[in-house]
Specification:
10 helices, Metallo-beta-lactamase, Chain A, alpha/beta, 15 strands, single chain, eight-stranded mixed β-sheet
């Protein structure tokens, strides 16, 4: 066998291996420990990167450091669920320092320095900006589907019209609730939206204005993740929510207790998550304070 034949066989094997990775690969879902804030990174089997929220400004530093440490210089999708500072505070840095192909935004505005910085960075985006309005499905080249379930209308109220997205890979689904409240949950139930999911990112950091029993029954999650920092002055996650999650049969993972939480799935099975507890203190809770003070104006 000459060198050319050997190279042809090698290249064929390489292609077959790459095809095998693309069809039998793993999707990871990482929930960052960013205090009472939200930031999660999904990496598809094809290496596409989806960032859902960016935490506070401090959280954005952590997200950016993680991306750089793992050689990630671009994001295929960034989703800003709503404009409160504990969700978009860190996205300004992400938009400035990383190439973003598509940014999905609720279209809502909020008066705070973090939103002003986010809006300024958004205006300089080289990729595509999409304002979510009405249910839509985006299928990535990997086959991973992003099912945008909320808002159903032009966003007017921050928590009611928060972006809700269900991320599906084969038979496994992850439901990202942002800070969606019980009214948003009721709309999803009324519309008979596809809610059943293996992983539920619990809405509003475990606050009592979300995670109703009817909603949990429809989602039927195996795992529930609460992104929260403790202590916080609002006592989140609230006991009533923890009790409902326990009664639903879901196994609860909290970032304040477990640190970064990473799930891995082949699209059929879902392993117990890997947790990376950190010795540092949680980021300041100023953003969540502003969030709650303004929450009464939402509905």
């Amino acid at each position: 066998m000459d060198v050319r034949q050997t190279m042809r066989i090698f290249l064929l094997l390489l292609v077959l291996v790459q095809v095998g990775w693309a069809s039998d690969g793993l999707m990871t879902v990482r929930f960052f420990d960013v205090g009472t804030a939200d930031a999660a990174l999904v990496t598809t089997p094809a290496g596409e990167h989806i960032l859902i929220d960016g935490g506070t400004q401090e959280g954005g530093k952590k997200v950016a450091s993680f991306l750089k440490a793992h050689g990630i210089d671009s994001l295929d999708v960034v989703i800003a669920t709503h404009p409160h500072p504990d969700h978009i505070g860190g996205l300004a840095q992400v938009l400035r320092e990383f190439k973003v192909q598509t940014l999905f935004d609720s279209g809502m505005q909020f008066e705070c320095p973090e939103y002003a910085a986010f809006h300024d960075a958004q205006s300089k985006l080289s990729g595509t900006l999409v304002t979510v309005c009405g249910q839509m499905v985006v299928t990535l080249p990997s086959g991973v589907r992003l099912e945008f379930l909320n808002p159903k209308r032009l966003a007017r109220r921050i928590h009611t019209d928060c972006i809700v997205v269900r991320i599906c890979y084969r038979e496994v689904a992850v439901l990202m609730m942002g800070d969606a409240n019980d009214i948003a949950e009721g709309v999803l139930l009324f519309d008979e939206a596809p809610l059943k999911s293996d992983i539920l990112k619990v809405g509003h950091h475990g606050a009592s204005d979300s995670t109703t029993e009817a909603f949990l029954k429809s989602v039927a999650p195996r795992f529930a993740v609460i992104s929260v920092g403790t202590p916080n002055q609002y006592g989140r996650p609230h006991k009533v929510v923890l009790d409902k999650l326990k009664d639903s049969g879901a196994t609860v993972y909290r970032t304040d207790q477990r640190g970064d939480i990473t799930f891995v799935t082949d699209g059929k099975s879902l392993a117990t998550p890997r947790c990376e507890r950190q010795s540092r203190a949680n980021p300041p809770e100023k953003a969540s304070v502003a969030d709650d003070k303004k929450a009464r104006n939402d509905d």
